[in-house]
């Protein structure tokens, strides 16, 4: 016979298990669960703030710690770097938290989350590195050395977008951020998504590390062009290639993330150094995160050397970085 007291204890235990009160970065991160139209959805306090099925999984701070961020970007605050003191772990986690309910780092299990961190941050490191062949610590340790293009050759104002994303007087739209954004139309689109006036104030990205990471994650999570998948959907397997994709040697692989982000500037040109540099960063980060590069798959899945580019560009876009 169940007494009122024992029933109360049982209910309290169930509540304790279902809420899974956690503390992260000194803040309460309580997992709350409910069902919406028969589907389990969750929130996790400060880090996964919207009700989402993805928030029922481990969040990024559960498996990616500050010491790992420091290992991945070991040389970013070296005196010879160009963005000393700008980039930090908390800025990344704060930015990532906004996209975790959409599946960034929370799709699948812990292993998939770790691999996505290695993939995304591998792209970031390769695009912000000032490493070179004889650099201290090796060329792969110098990611996040920059937060902006140092000697832009132009203002990157495309007047064909003057009605939708007109260039602001005096503004320059050179590369900025963790996955550098170029051109007024890309700053305009990013600003709309991030609710920041980047079209009139592109400099905001080089002044705020969290915003810079947000812009990079937005680019990872959002299709660059119409009729294309996002790099995120490619990597986690949400995207299903068509027959034409298969004939173009594009599949749900790391190599195809390079294709969708950089197009013909990196892919379909054979075994070129810019492509190999991105792959090397990804493999290096897999090793540092304790996953091991053997989980990356065969070389043909890492490379985009023989892939036909998605919608080849006729004018420079953000994918030209």
UniProtKB/TrEMBL annotation:
Q: GO molecular function terms here?
A: chitinase activity
Q: What is this protein called?
A: Chitinase
**Which cysteines are disulphide-bonded?**
157-167, 267-304
Positions of the UniProt region annotated as Disordered: 300-321
Compositionally biased spans, kind Polar residues: 310-321
Presence of the UniProt keyword Disulfide bond in the record: yes
- What lineage is on file? Eukaryota, Viridiplantae, Streptophyta, Embryophyta, Tracheophyta
In the UniProt record, the signal sequence range is 1-26
């Amino acid at each position: 016979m169940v007494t009122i007291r024992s029933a109360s204890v049982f209910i309290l235990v169930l509540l304790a298990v279902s809420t899974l009160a956690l503390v992260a970065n000194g803040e309460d991160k309580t997992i709350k669960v409910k069902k919406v139209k028969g589907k389990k959805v969750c929130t996790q306090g400060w880090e996964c703030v919207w009700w989402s099925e993805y928030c029922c999984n481990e969040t990024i701070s559960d498996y990616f710690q500050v010491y790992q961020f420091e290992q991945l970007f070991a040389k970013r605050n070296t005196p010879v770097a160009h963005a000393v003191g700008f980039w930090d772990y908390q800025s990344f986690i704060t930015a990532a938290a906004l996209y975790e309910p959409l599946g960034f780092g929370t799709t699948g299990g812990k292993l998939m989350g770790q691999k996505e961190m290695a993939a995304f941050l591998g792209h970031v490191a390769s695009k912000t590195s000032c490493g070179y062949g004889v650099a201290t610590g090796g060329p792969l340790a110098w990611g996040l050395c920059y937060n902006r293009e140092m000697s832009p050759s132009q203002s990157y104002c495309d007047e064909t977008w003057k009605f939708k994303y007109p260039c602001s007087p005096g503004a320059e739209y050179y590369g900025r951020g963790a996955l550098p954004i170029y051109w007024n139309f890309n700053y305009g689109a990013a600003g709309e998504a991030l609710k920041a006036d980047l079209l009139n104030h592109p400099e905001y990205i080089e002044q705020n590390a969290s915003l810079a990471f947000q812009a990079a994650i937005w680019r990872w999570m959002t299709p660059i062009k119409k009729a294309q998948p996002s790099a995120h959907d490619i990597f986690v397997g949400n995207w299903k290639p068509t027959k034409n994709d298969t004939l173009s040697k594009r599949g749900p692989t790391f190599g195809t993330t390079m294709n969708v982000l950089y197009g013909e500037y990196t892919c379909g040109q054979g075994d070129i150094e810019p492509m190999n540099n991105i792959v090397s960063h990804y493999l290096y980060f897999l090793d540092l995160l304790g996953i091991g590069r053997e989980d990356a798959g065969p070389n043909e899945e890492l490379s985009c050397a023989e892939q036909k580019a998605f919608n080849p560009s006729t004018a420079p876009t953000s994918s030209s970085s």
